[in-house]
Design a protein that fits this description.
2-enoyl-CoA Hydratase, Chain A, domain 1; three-stranded mixed sheet; 15% strand
């Protein structure tokens, strides 16, 4: 990928082949979300993902052996209740931006994803765990409760009983176990998560963007009742059958070749 940012910037931005890669770049703070510029850099990159039609997928990862350590305990302890509320309210827009995007976002997790860093990872559509990945809903270790949209994302991924266990006891979960309980989707047991995340992002970028987007929207509304599911499919599926991607997919099927999606956009 081609770098478009200098190495000292808090979020490095790289773009290639329809993918934007956002790397949290504050290793000295273990890529804390409270590092100046991290929030702004992530929001700017996600806005670019939305506005640039040539970008079809995103990767969020961390530099220096950590994904994201979440909040800065020193800042949180020193802040007033109102300051914490204001900061937390601002941060809600980051999780909304990830969840409400029509485009798929991959988290490449190497090293710790703790606290709000766990929330950042689990808000993404696909979570790839590297050899060193460690996930922890660490809030009760310091007398706090989960934020970072975790009451939405964690039960959706692992179920209510597992979410309860992770939230209450704040245990660490490593790569293979994370996949087994649904906390992560893929595990790179012998190295970094990033190459596998990039491979999956390329697959997304080459895939049927509108279909992926509708699937993401439907899953965001899960669990649905039977009637909600049937209504959602009636509202959303018919337009896809008239799309250029479907026509290409059908032609490729009959011609026994790989489809080239996105050509008619």
């Amino acid at each position: 990928m081609t770098k478009a940012s200098l190495s000292h910037e808090p979020v490095l931005v790289e773009r290639q082949d329809g993918i934007i890669q956002l790397t949290l770049n504050s290793p000295e703070n273990r890529n804390s979300l409270q590092t100046p510029g991290i929030y702004e850099g992530l929001m700017a990159g996600l806005e670019e993902l939305e506005q640039d039609a040539s970008l079809r997928a995103a990767i969020i990862t961390g530099a220096g052996g950590a994904f994201c350590s979440g909040g800065d305990l020193r800042q949180l302890a020193a802040g007033s209740e109102e300051e914490v509320r204001r900061r937390m309210t601002r941060n809600t827009w980051l999780y909304r931006r990830i969840a409400l995007s029509d485009k798929l976002i991959v988290a490449a997790v190497d090293g710790p994803a703790y606290g709000a860093g766990l929330g950042l990872a689990t808000a993404c559509d696909i979570v790839v765990a590297g050899q060193s990945a460690v996930f922890c809903c660490a809030f009760t270790r310091v007398g706090a409760m989960p934020d970072a949209a975790l009451f939405w994302s964690l039960p959706a991924r692992v179920g209510l009983s597992q979410a309860r266990r992770l939230m209450l006891w704040a245990g660490e979960v490593k790569g293979a176990e994370a996949v087994s309980i649904g906390l992560a989707d893929e595990h790179a047991p012998e190295g970094s998560a990033l190459p596998l995340a990039q491979k999956l992002a390329r697959r997304i970028a080459e895939g049927p963007a509108r279909a992926f987007g509708r699937i993401k929207t439907g899953l965001r509304q899960s669990p649905m009742t039977l009637e909600q599911a049937l209504g959602f499919q009636i509202d959303n599926a018919p337009p896809l059958f008239g799309s250029a991607d479907f026509k290409e997919g059908a032609s490729a099927f009959f011609e026994k070749r790989r489809p080239q999606f996105g050509q008619g956009e």
